[in-house]
Design a protein that fits this description.
The chain is an alpha/beta fold. The protein has 11 helices and 15 strands.
């Protein structure tokens, strides 16, 4: 009598991110080579557990995906089974269907790759008894319990290149160039890319800005002979006492703060102002080497956790080591930039203004 090979599912939820395919590749290779597990891919995140949208994943089917951006499994940020859209326009809880389908699909465990939204769903399903392992993914780097999430460094590299390119055109035309980057309510991308690219002003959600302080910074540089300025602003930045800028308030989709900053300073300076919104360019394309390595290490560690049946755990980077932590710890509190941390202090020492008059 043959013994059924254990089967695990892997899914990607939320926004796409460089390095997702590298994680999938590492999971499949480690699970099949080291642990003799069968692996299937669940398409469109948790929604695929409601539609039974699964595909087999083998070492042959994942060949060549390491450097590719996006996700082989495709993804969505609208497939929350606890708050699923119904045909009549209401929202319903279909989580019990998820649990039933997991059993019917013969899945002995699930690896969920995602950011805070995906991992909150993973934790709730784990509380319902689903064997769950998580891998942290977000370009925003705002997940607690891990030093870095994969995808972040690639987004920083893209944003830094944009700052470099804006420098040359700003200097050529004597302009103020404002670059808006992603990050939601965390300023990590703006801080890293602004510092790496030599920005003059960095605006992040954690340090509300005063328009007058930005104007004074620009005038101060003019007094030393500078004819241009580079401002990097996180999409979640806001004025002192003000609110975030939303492209869509109903869905709380952030965006447009760069145009607000331009309007705040336009009447008080003589330089022309131009705005660039980097947008989804930060999400697309091939992951840099750092993220390929981190993704591969995360994927291998996740497969090992499944083999050891360490359910409810998330892989994480601590220093140089890959460890595991409870998923609950990772989603308990977002990780924001501390206004007095070493990176901010370094930027201030190099003459960067954070729009707060310091």
């Amino acid at each position: 009598m043959s013994i059924r090979k254990k089967r695990i599912g892997i899914l990607t939820g939320g926004g796409d991110c460089p390095g997702l395919n590298a994680v999938i590749r590492a999971v499949v290779r480690t699970a099949t080579r080291d642990h003799d597990l069968e692996v299937v891919g669940i398409q469109f995140g948790f929604e695929g557990l409601l539609t039974n949208a699964i595909i087999p994943l083998t070492p042959e089917s994942i060949r060549g995906i390491l450097p590719k951006g996006g996700t082989l499994l495709r993804t969505t940020n609208r497939g929350n089974p606890f708050d699923f859209p119904h045909v009549d326009g209401t929202r319903i809880d279909r989580s019990s269907e998820c649990v039933t389908n997991i059993g019917e699909l013969g899945l002995d465990g699930i690896i969920a790759i995602g950011g805070d939204g995906t991992l909150r769903i993973a934790q709730r399903l784990a509380d319902m008894g689903v064997p769950m392992v998580a891998v942290p993914k977000t370009i925003d780097n705002d997940l607690a319990a891990t030093d870095y999430t994969f995808g972040f460094m690639t987004a920083v590299a893209v944003a830094t290149e944009a700052v470099d390119r804006l420098h040359t055109t700003a200097e050529s035309h004597d302009r103020v160039m404002i670059l808006e980057v992603m990050g939601r309510n965390a300023g990590w991308i703006a801080l890293y890319s602004g510092l790496a690219g030599g920005a003059d002003i960095i605006l992040i959600p954690e340090i509300p800005y005063d328009p007058q302080a930005i104007i004074e910074s620009i005038h101060s540089r003019e007094g030393t002979g500078s004819k241009f300025d580079i401002i990097v602003v996180a999409e979640g930045a806001k004025r002192v006492g003000g609110e975030e800028s939303y492209l869509d308030k109903a869905s709380r989709r952030l965006g447009g703060i760069a145009y607000q900053v331009a309007a705040d300073i336009a009447q008080a300076i003589d330089l022309e102002i131009r705005v660039t919104v980097l947008g989804h360019i930060q999400r697309g394309g091939s992951p840099i080497a750092f993220d390929r390595l981190l993704s591969s290490r995360f994927g291998k560690a996740a497969a090992d956790l499944v083999a050891k049946q360490k359910w409810g755990e998330m892989v994480a980077l601590r220093g140089d080591d890959i460890i595991s932590v409870p998923i609950r710890d990772a989603v308990s509190n977002p990780k924001y930039v501390e206004p007095h941390n070493e990176m901010v202090a370094t930027a201030r020492s190099l003459g960067v203004s954070f729009g707060d008059g310091r």
